[in-house]
């Protein structure tokens, strides 16, 4: 069985989630497209990264990501570091011929994201931006239903990503430092909403946004509210906040079309609410438990009715990327490419611009 | 027991709902503040209004609302006619010394609404604008919880009123005629969201809106999407649509504050979702069935757990107005006055202006 | 329009609910099959029944129900008194030629219920036993779906009626006195479950029951648990309790058949959960808001999506009975006849017998 | 780090789930109590078990489980085979000094289960019966709340395990062969309900059951319905079925006590509904997302709000057993011992006896 060496940058939240994914896929998705071998893991804290290497069973740990770039046994570079460490290592790895998986947001600014995309695309390696919610079974099913016309012509998309951990002025992580994070709820949560909006509905044409910081002395945004128009003419909202008390990980979205509607809440990520196609007397939103064996992700798992967890989305994502590498296939449309990563940044930046200018901002994208 | 004669303009949807309310309150809310006597009902279609008079047991029917204004036995004029018939009869009735209840939106434009308010306020009669959702038990409870500080400092309000009956280009009612209705989903549904936003959160400072018509040849809006900022600094969204397939009467809103959160859906109008005040291990949104006997509306009804219906909100509203009349008390804050009706129109118009201009529009209100 | 005089026994919970129903139907269900005229109301407390007569606008009050029986202007005798007052007045009214509506349980024992049925049936008047939950729109829809074969061959019925007001040893109403009530949760709540089981599934063949009193010094049962088999071979459970803390009026039932399933909760009485008839990928329970205009009860009400309340079931029930009277039609199958009332008592008694004997008890019914 | 060699019997559903668990725990629960080394896997089909060994990365595969028993490098024998293969290999492994994990039901009959318990207990090894639902985070929280008195004196337990895959007469697996499975829904699903009833409420005193086979020519039961009494005096129901169309994996239970209530549904396994401790106005069931870091299982996982999947319960179970082995601690009370496995069988058999005899059956347990 063909193997691929994996080098990981970051050992904390995303480092753990991604390492788990590579371990998990190798015996659940059998046979795997490529068998991941966990080669090296890099991080700034020597003791912590050493411990992580033992825990996740990487061959070695290093405090210099350049060691991973230089390691010829590594075929896939996975960047789960803070946002300020996305661009340089990812570009370097790609230019060293490694396929790259980079967490979102791709860069701290649209310019930086564009640069990552431009430089990496030029190398010809496979690139995937870690919008892992595309790999929720219910999201994939929603995409299929939309593509098949089951919801008809789409009129509305309402997306909001609500968390509540941000309401403590003493909190201090890189996520609150503009130089490391680029932005707050916008880059962290808002880009997820933007990406699914694009994946499910299509391209965004304009935004009218409000970006807001509530917590005293905080340097990044806590929340954003946006009225949005799509190129297709559909209209809706994009919202994100770290201050929705009681909502722990509530990435909720609804689509209304001329033939049907869909509703999703990440806190019940195994369910998709589906409306349409019923007779008048028994019309209603169906609570679909998305665990049928024929689903492209659920084939890896258990019999119908046995649900998966949040961490498992990364396994689906890793499997998708490894398959594209093994088959020399496309990461798009189901995986977010670095172009998708760049476009999400461009739209996020337009929301900030709109908030400042008070004007609806039309979106225009750079091409290569 | 003191009586009050009621004259009703309109016999269709609102005429039926209001007549039902006056009938119902007189034996449920015992003793009533004033015993309503249903005197006369006016409508354009002679046969239909005659039938309605028999059905709801008014003493007489008329095709000329001026008959009601001239009738000295009528102490309360209730205007449930189309929007184009709100201003003139309501003003005339008030100037004839009758208390007035006028359905929302108060006028077709902010100017018209202002004029109704100005002229009626000058007469000194009691005036209530029919934002009946203030009289949903769960909404009143939400208001109380907010006022008591149970949700803390409010950061977000997300309100949307979703219906789905508008997706048929052959539909033709006065609601689709700009001259009769003034606007579409905006005046019909959007003003409800605006009014509850103001009742629950406080005054709105600015709006960034998109107003949209999807159905071919339709003369009024089908939907609106708005990012909104409140004077307090809270931010959120206001949305309304007649094209959310599968949502029949889904007036949903959520409030997030520093101490708690509230969620409501009109399709489950007897429930309020309440978050806050729990220990970490058992924190979660509580599904509160708002039927306790101590609630200001539920005292009229059944033992706890036995729910009320949509039509019953009008009984609560009518009771509130009759009590203000009987006691010479204030309609505000729990009832919407004509000033509230005017302000909702002003904000609705700013949403339209913003949609056209592409700019965030600050709201300013006229005073008397 | 033909009228019918109504005489009411009882002015408390059921007296209020039934009086409200007769008032309401006359102008919502237009034209009514017969126009109810509220003639007289009887109760033991002179002051209270006098107040009730004013409130519900009966022509007169009396402390002797025999006055109602003797009143020739009364065509319908409605018995909403305590259980110990069901038999004698109801029989007397029927034998005086009046149609009769009697609250459930029909009698305190199966013998008493049988006697009421036998004596009343012999008179030829219309008789309806007040199992009002047959008149919930969602229950009627469920009945239709079952009859049409939409759920296929039924395998399971699970019914439970959960309330939580009984956990106070100092509570004292007639409902806790065996001589007045006959039984506790069994007659009050359990018979509702038994009746809907019979209405929706068919006749019950045997029961294995446990009847339990938890509260010290209480003279009637607090709860019952029953494994049940239907004549069709379907199996399931029947449960009722006044001690399910947090469940206010949770009459919940589920039906599983070879083609579909149905689920209902009285606390969300406007919804029916319907499963069946979907493709594999989008199968799921549909939350059907039972408010479509074509529904036999909803035609009386508001546009789709606008829900009704618990009290409105009595209006549907009263309308059904008045129509049977006006047309000389059958109360069955949608209304519970006194035979249904008797059969519910017979089954309830078998549950008690089973609890005592420790044996599964086969049910056999007496006929006339 | 101390290691323990694992030998696995069975490679299908449970073999996959358990192998996944051992792989997963070693890098999520860091440091693990013991580091599992996957040594050998046994199964009847040579090709399939060989493939499984590669997939889950066992050192070797064998078609004779005696090879595992004889392998001195194996310290833990995990029996995920069909029920007919539970007793002999499990006893042999224990008598060879290996700790044992055996899937439920422990044996096909109470006698067989007793024998497994007796023989294994005599060896002094650690033994755990695979009632994995004790290792659902929400179930563990429920246990804690009950133990702390948060629900008060318990009056009711209603448990039902509903699946819907059994309605096809052509299905043929060992689960439908009495000699291999012992029973149908009873051993497969019913024992899970029995075990959680005992874990959460306490010992069961008597059962009144109905066991039913619906599908033609099926040799095992499809469903059971039971009224149950606990030694504490609490009463309730235990139900299981493979014919609840639309319920995929709906293991639902509710507890009502004098101070609170709890509700759980396995299809939303990350949620616990908790009632109690609120003021009257805002009382209601809280939807608790059981993902707080302080929870004994959730410490292994992601930040709050990020849910786990069904398969992850086995990781929690494996961790619990390894910790008991490493510390020479007790498997009870949070893990089910073989005594618990035996008792579940004894109760299951009493349900069958009751179904045949038509009598309530008191439970008595054998001791060692």
Describe the overall structure.
Chain A is α/β, with parallel strands linked by helices. The first copy, chain A, has 10 helices and 15 strands. The first copy, chain A, has helices at residues 13-28, 46-56, 65-70, 87-95, 110-121, 137-147, 178-181, 185-200, 312-327, 338-357, and strands at 3-9, 35-42, 60-62, 76-79, 99-102, 127-129, 154-162, 204-212, 223-230, 235-241, 250-257, 261-265, 271-275, 285-289, 361-362. In chain A, the strands form 2 sheets. Chain A has a 9-stranded mixed sheet with strand order 14-13-12-11-7-10-9-8-15. A 6-stranded parallel sheet of chain A has the order 3-2-1-4-5-6, sandwiched between helices. In chain A, helix 5 (110-121) runs antiparallel to helix 10 (338-357) and helix 8 packs across helix 10. Chain A is globular, with a radius of gyration of 20 Å. Chain A starts with a strand and ends in a 6-residue tail after the last strand. Chains A and B meet through strand 7, strand 8, strand 9, strand 10 and strand 11 of A and strand 7, strand 8, strand 9, strand 10 and strand 11 of B. Strand 14 (285-289) of chain A pairs antiparallel with strand 14 of chain C.
| Pair of chains with the largest interface and how many residues each contributes | A-B, 48 and 48 residues
How much of the residues of chain A is beta strand, in percent? 15-25%
Molecular shape of chain A: globular
How would you describe the oligomerization state of the chains in this entry? Answer: homotetramer
Which residue ranges of chain A are poorly predicted, with pLDDT under 50 across at least 5 consecutive positions? none
């Amino acid at each position: 069985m063909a193997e691929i060496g994996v080098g990981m940058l970051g050992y904390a939240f995303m480092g753990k989630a991604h390492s788990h994914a590579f371990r998990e896929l190798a015996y659940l998705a059998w046979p795997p497209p490529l068998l991941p071998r966990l080669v090296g893991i890099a991080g700034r804290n020597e003791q912590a990264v050493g411990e992580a290497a033992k825990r996740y069973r990487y061959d070695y740990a290093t405090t210099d990501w350049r060691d991973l770039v230089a390691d010829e046994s590594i075929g896939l570079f996975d960047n789960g570091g803070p946002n300020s460490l996305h661009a340089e290592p990812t570009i370097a790895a790609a230019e060293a011929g490694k396929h790259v998986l980079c967490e979102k947001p791709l860069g701290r600014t649209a310019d930086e994201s564009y640069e990552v995309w431009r430089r990496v695309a030029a190398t010809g390696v496979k690139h995937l931006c870690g919008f892992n919610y595309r790999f929720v079974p219910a999201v994939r099913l929603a995409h299929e239903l939309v593509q098949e016309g089951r919801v008809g012509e789409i009129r509305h998309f309402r997306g909001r990503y609500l968390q509540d951990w941000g309401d403590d002025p003493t909190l201090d992580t890189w996520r609150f430092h503009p130089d490391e994070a680029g932005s707050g709820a916008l880059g962290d949560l808002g880009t997820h909403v933007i990406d699914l909006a694009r994946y499910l509905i299509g391209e965004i044409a304009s935004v009218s946004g409000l970006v807001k910081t509530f917590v005293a002395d905080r340097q990044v945004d806590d929340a954003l509210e946006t009225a949005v128009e799509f190129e297709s003419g559909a209209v809706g909202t994009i919202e994100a906040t770290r201050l929705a008390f009681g909502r722990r990980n509530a990435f909720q979205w609804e689509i209304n079309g001329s033939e049907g509607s869909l509703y999703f809440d990440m806190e019940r990520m195994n369910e998709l609410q589906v409306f349409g196609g019923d007779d008048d007397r028994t019309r209603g939103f169906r609570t679909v438990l998305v665990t049928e064996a024929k689903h492209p992700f659920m084939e890896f798992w258990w019999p119908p009715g046995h649900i998966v967890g949040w961490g498992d989305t990364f396994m689906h994502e890793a499997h998708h990327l490894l398959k594209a590498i093994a088959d020399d296939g496309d990461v798009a449309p189901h995986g977010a490419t670095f172009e998708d990563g760049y476009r999400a940044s461009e739209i996020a930046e337009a929301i900030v611009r709109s908030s400042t200018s008070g004007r609806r901002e039309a979106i225009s994208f750079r091409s290569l």
